[in-house]
Hints:
The protein has 451 residues and is α/β, with parallel strands linked by helices. The protein is built from 17 helices and 7 strands.
Amino acid sequence: MTFLVNPQSERKEPRPWLRAAGWLTFLGPFFFLSYGFANWWTGRLPHVGSFVFDWENHIPFWPWTIVPYMALDAFYAGSLYLCATRAELDTHAKRLLSASVLSVAGFLLFPLQFSFERPATSGFNGLLFELLAGFDKPYNQAPSLHISLVLLVWLVFARHLHGVARWLAHGWFLLIALSVFTTYQHHFIDGVAGAAVGVLCVYLFTDEPHTWHRTPGPPAADRPWQRKLAAGYLLGAALCLALAAALGGWAWLLAWTSVALLLVGLGYAGWGVAVFQKHDGQLSWAARLLLLPYRVGAWWSSRWFTRRGAPSAEVAPGIWMGRVPGRADWQHLPAGAVLDLTAEFSLSGAARARPHRSVPLLDLVVPTPAQLAQAVAALDELVAYPPVLVHCALGYSRSALVVAAWLLHRGRAATPAEALAQLRTARPQVVLGAAHQAALAVYYASLRIEN
């Protein structure tokens, strides 16, 4: 027996050669004009300082690394033609464009210059240095646009190459990144800032399946509290940035914490769980990096506030509720399924090896009715693989609300008060405030209407 296959269903999207040429025609002149303008502007300033650590005096000058340094231009152009689809190409091109815009803004707002004298170089390498000097000046330091572009171009080649070719590409792009310092083009802080800009560009223009999707706002009764949380995180971001600027040196690492708190604050201000870019239990790698200071604090909090009690407890036959499990916690948990309700953590390998679902919810605020219904439905799917661990960060609030709603949904509790009493009997630390209890009452009322 033969089956007819619709040719349209197997037809692949043609590689967007012309669109790649169009993007390159725009990006090339934009880079040279904007970069050159920043060099010209900074060169007119009466004084331009430097930011350099003492240990950088020990960085060697390797003239031959000008070859990989200059080679980035060719790989930059080639990366556009390597993109297989229009969506991939547009995402990559937007990242390249945003890296240039952010870097030039940094050059103009925080003008710096390279402070080491570059040794004289002859031969082919010397010729390349002369070509570079004809366009580039000792300005345009932080963030290093070269480092940003290395990261963005590297990602495209890593996505399309396999086997030995991929490992060779890894080595080559690492060498290009190293050449930024061994050609005496940039100081260390420039490279760190350039890497941060590259990660930010990846975060702003996401790859599938991670997308920007704003979730509906919280119930009206919880909005004032959510606005206070947003204000608190945004104030923390401002304070960290002020401390970094005041203390200088290694204190500039506080700028990382500032960015993390800013993003979380925007999440509470209206962007919701989208700021974590979580899909199927995994945060995007860019979100994991940018939000790392916040996530470290959240992890420490989950350990500290649960240190006196059991990591999890069975609150109903086959249903366990607890904190986000660490490596040691799995030793005491029976094999089964996992329902992850955190927005801020990725599922561990141990959790992903089990049947699992993830319904990301913001901490400390009441989920929307749609989010609560989605979480209950996910738990309903997982009960086929008992026992099921339902976890949030501490196992006191988000998980408690969802399990209480599920008990009502399954008829294992007759009223919201009975559901909460059942949870608190097994896990006395459960914390559900008035807003959470109101959300549970609304959910219970919807069940009665359906029935």
